[in-house]
Amino acid sequence: HSTPKVNWGNLIALGGNYLPPVQGTTSADVEYEGLLFGLDWVIRVLSHENIMRDYILLHSTMIVRGDCKTVIDQLNSRSSARKMESKYCMAVTKIKEIERLFSLHRSHSAQFTNAREMNIHFDHIPRENNTLCDAVCRLVVYQKQRCIVGSVIDSVKTGES
After folding, report:
1. Distance of CA 122 to the CA centre of its chain
2. Of the residues 84, 85, 97, 102, which has the fewest C-beta atoms closer than 10 A?
3. CB atoms within 10 A of CB 45
4. Got the DSSP string for 36-69?
5. Could you tell me how far CA 146 lies from the centroid of its own chain?
6. C-alpha–C-alpha distance, residues 109 and 70, integer Å
7. Positive or negative torsion for Cα 27, 33, 37, 39
8. Tally: H helices and E strands in the chain
9. Residues 90, 92, 97, 102, Cα dihedral to 10°
10. d(CA 64, CA 49)
11. pLDDT (tens digit, 9 = 90+) per residue, 8-60?
12. Burial zone of 74 (CB within 10 Å; 0-12 exposed, 13-18 middle, 19+ buried)
């Protein structure tokens, strides 16, 4: 049987960030960190005049996809955040800021006379179908490993002088 393909549509942001290993970190912790990273990016884009901001303003729907069902269920109000409440609250605050910026810019621009509210949807992508995210994570880890190896080589060279 074949794995269903994920339709990435108009993908506008893809990124990653290295999180140092910490005892007790769960996949939900990491998923929230990735979500907050992405939401911060959207806020930065909406805060400054640029072509990407105009692209976002032309659309009224933003789909956030994640492979941690726990986090997606929390964001869709299907379950309570309990242990993740602080990160959940940070995400909700950032989502409200995105909605505020979206409304502000749409209402002040003649280009967007048919202004609608921003609709943000959260979709769960099973891990086995999230190959794009997996590739980005591998790239981030690879870059971090190269940085560490470079530092070791520099230290060895410095010690040889």
Report:
1. 11
2. 85
3. 19
4. HHHHHHHHHHHHS-SHHHHHHHH-SEEEEEES-H
5. 24
6. 38
7. positive
8. 5, 2
9. 150
10. 23
11. 455 555 566 666 677 888 888 888 988 998 899 889 888 887 777 777 777 77
12. buried
Q: Which amino acid is at 143?
A: Q
**CA within 13 Å, CB half, 96:** 6
Which pair of tokens denotes residue 129? 């179908």
Report the range of poorest mean pLDDT among 25-29, 67-71, 115-119: 115-119
Residue whose entry in the numeric block shows the structure tokens 């105009």: 54
Comparing CA positions, the residue from 105, 103, 132 lying closest to residue 34 is 132
Residue-wise pLDDT for 70-86, tens only, equals: 999 999 999 998 889 99
CA 65 – CA 126 distance, rounded (Å) = 10
Q: Do the beta carbons of residue 14 and residue 132 sit within 8 Å?
A: yes
Residue 152, CA distances (Å) to 20, 71, 77, 139, 156 in order: 18, 37, 47, 20, 6
DSSP 3-state assignment of 4? coil
pTM score above 0.90 = no
C-alpha dihedral sign at 153, 154, 157, 158: negative
What is the Cα–Cα distance from 31 to 70, expressed in whole angstroms? 9
**Nearest partner of 101 among 113, 115, 90, judged by Cα:** 115
